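INTERNAL TRANSFER SHEET
From: sequence group
To: structure group
Subject: DUF4424 domain-containing protein

Please process the attached sequence and return the structure record in the designated field. Keep the field labels unchanged so the import script can parse them.
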Amino acid sequence: MTLRSLLRSAALVAALACAGSAMANDSSAELAAGGLVLTKTAAVAMRSEDLYISPTAVRVRYVFENTSGKDVTLRVAFPMPDIGGDGFFMSDVSIPIDDPANILGFTTKIDGKPVKAQIEQKAFGGGQDRTGWLVANRIPLAVHQEAATKALEALPPAKLKEARALGLYDEDQGPIWVLKTTYHWSQTFPAGRPIIVEHAYTPSVGATVATSIGTEYGAETQARYCVDAGMVAAVKRAGGDGGAYVEKWIDYVLVTGGNWSEPIGDFRLVVDKGAPRNLVSFCADGVKKIGPTQFEVRRKNWRPEEDLRILLLERHEP
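Return from structure group:
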């Protein structure tokens, strides 16, 4: 593949990254994940959120306070990114952990103690919940694993025809249902006493072998990630054609932080680009460099209205 073709692929994948998967040569797309989800409540406020994002780790520390005057028990959830669907190809999507139910290696602690969460998995084909059909026919729900393909293809012809009709199987792609996985647990928020909730996981990082930044194909990517003139100039100094860098993307869902009773009291984001020679860009005001690889954003009494998209350019090793 020529460098020109790679740059076209980089531009295409960056434009499609928010869809969860993309078809492009020598590239992979990220799966957007984020923070805790709770049905909107007037009882619990998020006093602070301390969020760290790097290519290898996402860590979040929340402080919650029940302001209602009495103990409240709520269902708290962490939704995994959806996997699968028509046009989903494993070779094009970054899945960091080979676990059928926990592709991001998600863990949670409450006041320093591990929480054993429940797992809910549902499979949708043709827009309908087909979990029961798959379970009844002994098909693993993990659409991204080879076991699902083998089990489907071992079905009798009549059953395989039924799977096609239900939107679960395509002869060219194999399994095409959408797997939705949610970790959830029942959490009591004591009246008037803050509790600390921490979770961590490995992010899904999309990538391609060159960057379109600074080239004729890069305008959409530059706008999506708020790339400034300094980053464009740095890419051009390194060669000008984008081939000196690997382009990577990390998406993080922020807007779920608006489900709590009040704006986030004290929000802190640290984005770590991994190595001093790497370049990073994301859309935010008041970004402050706090170390050779780390950049900080702080907000007070804030409700996020947009999700976070991070562009990382990693230098090719000489």
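Handover comment: The chain has a mean pLDDT of 85. Residues 284 and 297 are 7 Å apart (CA to CA).
Transfer complete.
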